[in-house]
């Protein structure tokens, strides 16, 4: 009897343990599944966001691409327009000599000859007609002649002012129909004319700034003479010099033309003198 009761008790205890442990194991199993599903959902969530973003971008991209195409087309149109304009623009570098003619007034020095350096830019309307802006820079010594009440170019010993001149011309250029054959190429000719201004800036000449030089008398005071020279240049149209000229161009190679220019500046004021210039110019052949 004792053995039977002992087996019964042990059997009941095992069953009780099974019924007690089973719910706990089931709970742990369920909790593990929830954790796994939560982890899977957590890992899937970024992919979901990425997918939604791609869908939205795909819906917006056609219009964006169209806008980008429109902007790119506008840029191409603008570039084409710029190219068509700049294709008609050319430039040149030139240097020469200026002759200040007719300087035989009372007490004046012989007519000076001064070097000049310049640049020009032109716009071609067609093969025969261009509009050109030319700038020629020169430096000269001036004195103020009190007897004539006007400034005159002078030699170094008689100077009062150092004058920097900017001869600025706005000229129409005609390509002449005549050419001269030279070997395998030919010399072409052009003529031009237009208004021009001589922007002259007067500075006190170097070496004349000693206190003893400032006498207060315009006949001997270089400072007073320099002031009078500067004022004279801008009074009564003394700055207006219409220009006429003729030039010839020879192709020295496939890229450049070598030109020779003869120019005459005619003053509007009768008290001013003629300017005659002769010089060379180099012009790129991109528009030739």
Characterization of the model:
The termini are far apart. The protein is built from 2 helices and 10 strands; from the N terminus they run αβββββββαβββ. The chain folds into 2 domains: 1-85; 87-284, Porin (Beta Barrel). The chain has an 8-stranded antiparallel β-barrel with strand order 1-2-3-5-6-8-9-10. Residues 1-58 and 60-66 have low confidence and may be disordered. The chain has 288 residues and is an alpha+beta fold.
Number of domains: 2
| Share of residues in helices | 25-40%
CATH architecture of the largest domain: Beta Barrel
Low-confidence stretches: 1-58, 60-66
Order of helices and strands: HEEEEEEEHEEE
Apparent shape: elongated
Distance between the termini: 132 Å
Estimated structural class: alpha+beta
Strand content: 35-45%
Mean pLDDT: 77
CATH fold call of the largest domain: Porin
| Overall radius of gyration | 46 Å
| Distinct helical segment count | 2
Question: Would you summarize the structure shown here?
Answer:
The chain is an alpha+beta fold. It contains two helices and ten strands.
Write the layout of secondary structure elements.
Blueprint: H1 2-86, E1 89-100, E2 113-124, E3 129-145, E4 150-153, E5 161-182, E6 185-194, E7 196-204, H2 222-233, E8 243-251, E9 256-265, E10 275-284
Antiparallel strand pairs: 1-2, 1-10, 2-3, 3-4, 3-5, 5-6, 5-7, 6-8, 8-9, 9-10
